[in-house]
Amino acid sequence: MKGPLFYAKILLFGEYGIIKDSKGLAIPYNSYKGALKLDENTSEKATESNTKLQEYFTYLSKIDPKLVVFDLEKLKTDITNGLYFDSSIPQGYGVGSSGALVAAIYHKYATEKITVLENLTKDKLIKLKTIFSEMESFFHGKSSGLDPLNSYLSLPILINSKENLEATAIPMQKQGKGAVFLLDSKQIGETEPMVNIFMNKMKNEGFRKMISEDFAKVTDACIADFLHGNVKSLFGNVKELSKVVLNHFKPMIPNAFHKLWQQGIDTNDYYLKLCGSGGGGYILGFTKDYEKVKDVLKDYKLELVYRF
Length: 308
Prior knowledge:
The protein is 44% helix and 20% strand. The protein is α+β, with helices and mostly antiparallel strands. The protein folds into two domains: 6-167, Ribosomal Protein S5, domain 2; 179-307, Alpha-Beta Plaits. Strands 1, 2, 4, 6 and 7 form a five-stranded antiparallel beta sheet that branches. A four-stranded antiparallel beta sheet has the order 9-10-8-11. A two-stranded antiparallel sheet has the order 3-5. A hairpin with a 2-residue loop joins strand 6 and strand 7 (164-167). Helix 7 packs antiparallel against helix 8 (231-248) and helix 8 (231-248) packs antiparallel against helix 9. It is globular and about 60 Å long. The mean pLDDT is 92.
């Protein structure tokens, strides 16, 4: 058995905001992918994945069948026979490693599943997101369900609010100088502790006000600019977003990158933002001149995501 491929995802805009019902935009990232496999692989990675799937099976068997039903017998047999998730998606990097696994399990073992070929109404998207939220909570404690949804559909998803999602189109890439890129922090980021920090901060009225006014407003503006191809306006708004994140989300930014973050704002060579929950993994960057940035950030590993 060689399952279909499920890709990584990048939440371009909306990290943390989507927990509190502001907008978000997630896109598939095809450089990394994973598939379920059933073969004689006894590598450490395959064995580790199989062990994790055994634990996951116990979790899935307790999910309310009113929400989703799995062919648990088949899943159990396959796990016993060595099922594993063969993935190139880095874990703890904010690009949806557990999301791709969840999407693969749903695709293979859910009965009466919603398929990509259907007319994906908002109700169906919400139902899928709810199912995936429950399935992915095993890995993070609390999940929005967005990563698996993105991986499962392999389409850009616009999050208008928790109850309003739509598959969307993004402008065609151009062969221009500008780019969105990933910067490797060389650190693993743990989602749950970062979300806990955010939830604690949300108890503070000033922080809540900042989220609903400054953070949500500039995030929504970035999404509108990106979707409409307003590149000039986008960079102005991304700079503002980068400042807001540096001022209010410092615990989510690895200490070694605070100075680099500020440097981008000061020089306008690039602007950095969180990719996923932060705390490590990838940092997302926007630049008007990718060739220049490759030189400015030559000590870091960069990966190209999108060209303007």
